[in-house]
Design the sequence.
């Protein structure tokens, strides 16, 4: 399976239900970070994004040199290997659910209308550009498709795009009458359809934009727009069934074009730890340099008085450099290797606590949350529901609307917290200037902290005696 490459591609034109569309991206997707082939090398390389692991690698190599270390090579490298193995195992365990989810999605089945007029059930990953798919009410679309025919007499179909843009309002889609004329219910009544072609713009991430054309058997063109595009990830609603021709598959679909390639992320703790380790390393280098320079000065002034030592030291400068490395090994406990092991264990235990958290369990879907969705101004329902109605159980009153607007406006980065709009909202809440200033400070904190938003919001509501 190929990972999607985000370079521009050419416009595409293909014949419906043609077998000559293998040049396009297949419909299999991969959101996991690793594959069985690149897991080990990639996971090991990622571990060296930490300064601590680079530090311990250098330390392990130096400790294997008998000239400057009294430790055996095995005892020096073993702790470092244990740390890397634990980190790699954790990376693999975290990536397994992604791989399982990819496998589950790719192996979902969908009916495909073939040229023989029969519906054949195939897996999503086997869907090709040009295939005619049958999607029923409540089912997700396996790929980006052009609507050809729907169960409604007026050619309309309704889709829900909540998983794409957070909007639960159903969006109407329309099939062109000249295309619907080729069908009789779910069957193709005019075999000339298989001589028709579809022209489409290159794949792009815009879910609200689509330009294309339907070219019939005589070469006449009918314009296609976003009103005929059924998006992968959307769901058919309030429509018994719909037929569509696949135009974009796999990582060429708009939802996958909007998704980022899995990245290796570092927590704030790791960023802070890297800075501290860098600082400690600089201090350690200063100590080692001072000790090596002192050793060189002493050797230059006194070594000639000790013939046995002078013969053993081949070069005073080399002796000073070897002493520098020896002092580095003597002071390497300034950055303990147990620090990395502890962080790995803490991260693993924290992940288990999050999975066992009852507040992160979805009763409607009967499964625990696998990820935390950050607040986004894109999803207004998420803001008002999570921050107002759910935590404090407010009734649907004008005060609830005022506070909802207050919180939403406070989270818009471009809005000045002291603007007249927010002040006007605060005035009917409490005429006390002191309380107003206190609430202004809360607004500033609300914009910066996601951990105490609910607590501060509850306190804010108590202040206005709701």
Sequence:
């Amino acid at each position: 399976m190929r990972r999607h490459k985000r370079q521009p591609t050419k416009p595409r034109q293909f014949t419906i239900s043609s077998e000559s569309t293998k040049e396009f991206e297949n419909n299999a997707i991969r959101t996991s970070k690793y594959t069985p082939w690149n897991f080990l090398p990639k996971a090991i390389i990622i571990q060296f994004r930490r300064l601590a692991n680079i530090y311990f690698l250098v330390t392990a190599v130096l400790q294997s040199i008998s000239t400057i270390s009294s430790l055996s090579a095995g005892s020096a490298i073993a702790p470092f290997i244990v740390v890397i193995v634990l980190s790699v195992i954790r990376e693999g365990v975290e990536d397994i659910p992604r791989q399982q989810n990819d496998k589950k999605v790719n192996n979902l089945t969908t009916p495909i209308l073939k040229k023989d007029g029969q519906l054949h059930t195939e897996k999503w990953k086997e869907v090709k550009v040009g295939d005619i798919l049958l999607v029923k009410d409540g089912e997700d679309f396996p790929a980006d498709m052009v609507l050809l025919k729907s169960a409604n007499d007026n050619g309309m179909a309704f889709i829900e795009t909540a998983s794409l843009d957070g909007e639960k309002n159903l969006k109407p889609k329309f099939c062109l009458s000249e295309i619907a004329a080729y069908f009789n219910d779910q069957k193709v009544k005019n075999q000339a359809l298989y001589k028709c072609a579809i022209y489409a713009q290159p794949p792009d991430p815009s879910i609200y934009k689509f330009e294309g054309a339907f070219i019939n058997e005589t070469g006449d063109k009918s314009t296609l727009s976003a009103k005929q595009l059924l998006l992968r990830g959307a769901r058919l609603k309030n429509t018994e069934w719909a037929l569509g021709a696949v135009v974009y598959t796999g990582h060429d679909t708009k939802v996958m074009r909007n998704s980022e390639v899995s990245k290796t992320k570092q927590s704030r703790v790791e960023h802070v730890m890297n800075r501290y380790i860098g600082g400690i390393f600089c201090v350690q280098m200063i100590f080692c340099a001072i000790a090596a320079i002192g050793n060189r000065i002493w050797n230059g002034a006194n070594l000639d008085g000790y013939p046995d030592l002078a013969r053993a030291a081949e070069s005073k400068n080399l002796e000073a450099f070897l002493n520098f490395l020896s002092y580095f090994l003597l002071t390497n406990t300034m950055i303990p290797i147990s620090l990395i092991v502890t962080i790995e264990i803490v991260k693993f235990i924290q992940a288990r606590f999050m999975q066992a958290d009852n507040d992160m369990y979805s009763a409607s879907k009967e499964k625990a949350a696998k990820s935390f969705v950050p607040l986004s101004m894109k999803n207004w329902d998420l803001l008002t529901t999570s921050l107002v109605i759910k935590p404090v159980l407010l009734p649907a009153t004008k005060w609830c609307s005022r506070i909802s607007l207050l919180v939403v406006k406070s989270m818009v980065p471009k809005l000045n917290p002291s603007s007249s709009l927010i002040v006007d909202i605060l005035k009917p809440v409490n005429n006390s200037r002191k309380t107003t200033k206190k609430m202004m400070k809360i607004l500033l904190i609300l914009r910066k902290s996601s951990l105490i938003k609910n607590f501060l919001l509850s306190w804010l509501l108590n202040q206005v005696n709701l």
Q: What stands out?
A: The radius of gyration is 32 Å. Residues 28-107+336-368 form one domain. The chain has 15 helices and 17 strands.
